[in-house]
Description:
Helix content is 44%, strand content 17%. The chain is α/β, with parallel strands linked by helices. It has a seven-stranded mixed β-sheet with strand order 22-23-24-21-20-27-28. Strands 3-2-1-4-5-6 form a six-stranded parallel β-sheet. The longest helix is centred in the middle third of the chain and has 16 residues, at 444-459. The relative contact order is 0.04.
Amino acid sequence: MKLILTHEQADFDAAGSLLAARLLDPESHAVLPRRLNRNLRGFLTLYGDRLPLTTFDDLPRRRVEHVTLVDTQVLPSVKGVQDSSRIHVVDHHPRSPELSPAWTAHIQEVGATTTLLAESLEAGGSQLDPIEATLLLIGIYEDTGSLSYSGTTARDVRSVGWLLDQGASLVLAGEFLDHPLTDGQREVLDRLVGAAESLTVHGVSIIVACASAQGLTDEISTLAHKLRDLFDPAGLFVLVGLDGHVQLVARSSSASVNVARISERFGGGGHSRAAAALIRNRKLEEVRRDLLALLPEMVQPARTVADIMSGTPHLLGPEVSIGEAADRMRRFGHEGYPVVEAGRVVGLLTRRAVDKAIAHGLADRPVRSAMDPGSLVAYPDESVEQLQRAMIEHDWGQVAVADRARGDVIGIVTRTDLLRSLAGETWATGEPSMADELERSLPAGRRQLLHRIGQAAESQRVAVYVVGGFVRDLLLGQPGMDFDLVVEGDAIALARALADSYGGRVSSHRRFGTAKWRLDPEDERLQEALDGNGSDPGALPETLDLVSARAEFYSHPTALPSVRLGSIKLDLHRRDFSINTLAIRLDGAHFGQLLDPWGGGRDLRLRQIRALHSISFIDDPTRMLRAVRLEQRLGFEIEPRTLELARQALPLLHRVSGERLRNELELIFEEPRLSEVMARLHALGLLEAIDPALTWDSWLEARFEAAGTFAPDPRWRLEASPPANLLRYGLWVVRLGAEKAAGLGRRLRLTQHDIKILRDGAALVQARQVWSGEVATSERVHRLEEAPTEAVVVAWIAISDDDRARSILQDYLVGWRHIEPALDGHALRARGIPPGPAYSRILTALRDARLDGVVSSEAEELAWLDRWLPEAGVDG
Length: 876
């Protein structure tokens, strides 16, 4: 016999799961438990005879071979179940550590267990009647708050859509979900409301409500829903004394309160947002006291204003002109500024108010005349929920953060900060620290170096972060060894403090707040600080760059940025793509704390490249090249909106300086997936935007690969192998013709020597029919010697499909260019030929004779000279 079982005090999700599992396996008995919630009991009273559900009393007495447990991971006591019975669990609650390893399980954290089984019904092409579909829909609705609870997933919504297609009735669902309270429930609810205690635990709002209800047979969960709607706390705990035991029902709307973990301490269970426990042989007051003592341990600290605020805020004085405020908004992209007088907030100036004032010709008026007056501030230790309520009440999109003791403004929180916090895109509160990952991934010397930097920062009372690509690659499991450090404070002072403590030298740039610390691995102080782990030359970086956190603005498209000091969040916001905005804090107790204010972690999970701003590519068009480089290196995709922004900014690439383009191209040339990067640049029109003549195809792909692996034949006797990037430039333009090749070299601001290599390489390939035709060897050599040797190498790689021409270049490089006549100027003087321009002409002609095989020895050269001099009209 096969059974489908669920938990006692079954709700609609339990009953819906029973029914769905029975529809999937018609040979099984779907067994209703003995205790049902009142609204479920009412539904089954009306419609139960149309459903294939049975009771324990109607079960045949046979051996149970298989049990499917739904919406629970605890096996009820059932006759016929033996140790040999196979057990399979289908549940949406977290996997219990006590789950038997002999059991099989399908456990996924969706909003309702019914969702998991409804998906299987849909996948199998099942057709439901309206009552069956309605029961399943109510099961999903009950556990997801009609799809409104935070634990609701897209899968729950899709299953509800399918059930509606099957004829599920929303009207019927509404009747049983909003079932009226009984007289007994109403009486207990009144007592619970009167006894409700409002607590704040680690900044999290908690309601604990206790009442006795001897003789009450109706379920308590309905009362919990009513109390949650009434008080709207982050965590709700309802304790009801019932005939010698206590029923605990808990609900949560915050990740800070995992009610399942708390209920487990009382012998119950559930999931993070809804749980319950039946506590036997305990007094109500005793359980209440234990719960209150447990909450500080179990409740996670709420996100606070300090977690999401930006330091060093931009503020305005009330007498600043509206025109100047508008200019600041344009440069920095801010939507509003707190207005501060004598260190206290006196109002908020919004972009909307500024635009209206300027439209009325009031640009010269002080901001006092346009600001929204008020003194709203937040404090660092306040919860994000408190801040949200204050923003809604005052309708302020930017709130200054003040030091609670001194009263001066130390930061700012914007509406965007709040939204990102609510979406989980800021400090990884409650998430594992990256400290362990740093410990695992870094060599001991570098790891200890980060600790020492963090300690130095803590002593100076500044925050220091390792940022950007290192953090990105660490999260991807591909940690690099180079650190970029950002200091929320004076980076130069921190660098000098490090040098004072551990040796080395510091160079700095005060205007930009940057410092370079050149480490001395031999310094005993550094060796001691790193426990000797800095002795390996590869254990430490040669230098470390420390930068004060700053904000940037661009005076016009393609310009280099102007900077001013800012917060870490503003510093990260000036970067190119969201996946490069991650940071790990290093100072003090914060070591390893991850900062993700701009959604970089989400985009890493989605494996996408997303620009931070809508004008990101207008500010800096070279970011388009970097986007493709990152996309191909990481195996990500540029997300659609970013692609659209890039297409709009394509014309601006032509205005970028040659040096900046060249720097980006040479970074691309070093990419391991160079061919893929170039193909993508071509497909997106980026190469054509740099110069209409630039392209990419299989011919170039093969030549670039050859340039990357090129090693000259030792017989060529080159002084040095030409740089791979120079060869790539030469090959890229070799088919364009000499003048276009030279023009592109000038566009990229190459040196005159390198431009000549591009020009002559293209000219050689273009004229190969001349120098490789049926001409004398000397004529070929004259033509080839007009070009630098590097240009000949470019041509040699370019014409790999022309064996004859390549053979001629090989002969030239190996032998011809090294051939010289045996006679020299001394021999000519000995023949009585007066020194002068004739010497060059004579020796060139003599070399040509050697090259063409006319002479092959000194004696033959002398005989040739005797014949040639009279013919050439040279006295000798």
